[in-house]
Amino acid sequence: MRRYATIIAAACLMLALAGMGQAQSTTTLSVAVGPEASLTVTTGTTTLASGSTTFSNPFTGTTSLTYKIRTTKVGGTGTLSLKITADFSGTGGPSVTTPPTSGDALTYTCTVSSPGTACTGTVTASTSSATSVATFGAAANSTSAGNSASTAWSLTDDPVYATGTYTATATYTISAT
Amino acid sequence: MPAGGATGTGTQSLSAVIDAVGALTAPASASLSPNSTAFQPFTGSVSLSYQARTTPAGGGSIGLSMSSDFAPAGGPSISTGALTYTCSGASLGSACSGMQTVSTTAQTPVLTLPASACTGGGGACSNLNPNSVNLTFTLTDSPAYPTGTYSAKITFVISAT
């Protein structure tokens, strides 16, 4: 009786071994995360308007944008800047390149959420060189959804401007190292 | 041997038990490359080689599980669902369908083997030996990740019955 029990147990074990084959292999996935930056201008067209009819107030408007940035942990930097890549169209109106009157200017101030540091004071926009909107230090990381920034524009209301609608283009650039 | 000695014959039954078997080889390492557009996902491919034999009443599968999450901490993490993959090009069996999210706890599908599947030889078996299946991994690229190099380990398991 004891012998039969032993044989039955051994047979069951062999059946189990024959029923299934299994093996495994492992892979290490690696990723190098480097500095990156991107931005989206969320204001489609910024309209500059003046509430004054007496030339006492400049034309003003605000352009909003969302930026994403990641700078290197040690020694990294970042910049957000803008440049007027197309001056006001038409003749007889405002001009960034050649203002009709000395002192006429397109200027802006900056509002930038952390981790950016906004430009200081009032900056005069230029068609020849990029001007600062924000700077970033090492180990700067925006949120996954991006962080906010804006430029508040001011354009001199000069009586010499002919009536009409004038359009210029400001191009924003962000970079990270 | 004495003169006039007898000769004899004997028979021996030979039997082979052909079991269900699965074997696979994955590359030791694979890199996920950045997208040319900022903050678009990292991607990378892994090709698995496998051999399988399933019984007429059986079947099989290849699954994927996480052995260790991305390290060092602070960067991408499988626990947040950041690592996904798709499967394609299975030369034996059916590759997984749609996008799969790698789990920290559960095995996720790579491939399903039918009954009576076998690798190589043609005929009722596949023509290729070994068989292969491709996985394309996608890892979210968040600005919140600090710069650096991160590594995770994943384990592929093949089973056949």
Describe the protein.
The complex is a heterodimer of chains A (177) and B (161). Chain A is mainly β and 177 residues long. Chain A has one domain. Chain A contains 1 helix and 10 strands. A 5-stranded antiparallel sheet of chain A has the order 2-3-9-5-7, with no helix packed on it. In chain A, strands 6-8-4-10 form a 4-stranded antiparallel sheet, with no helix packed on it. The radius of gyration of chain A is 32 Å and the shape is elongated. In chain A, 26% of the residues are buried. Chain B has one domain (43-160). Chain B has strands at residues 21-25, 29-32, 42-53, 60-71, 83-88, 94-95, 100-101, 108-113, 131-139, 148-160. Chain B starts with 20 loop residues before the first strand and ends with a strand. In chain B, 35% of the residues are buried. Chain A binds chain B through residues 17-38, 68-73, 76, 139, 141-144, 146, and chain B through 17, 19-32, 34, 37-39, 42, 44, 46, 48, 53, 67, 70, 75-76, 83, 137, 139, 141-161.
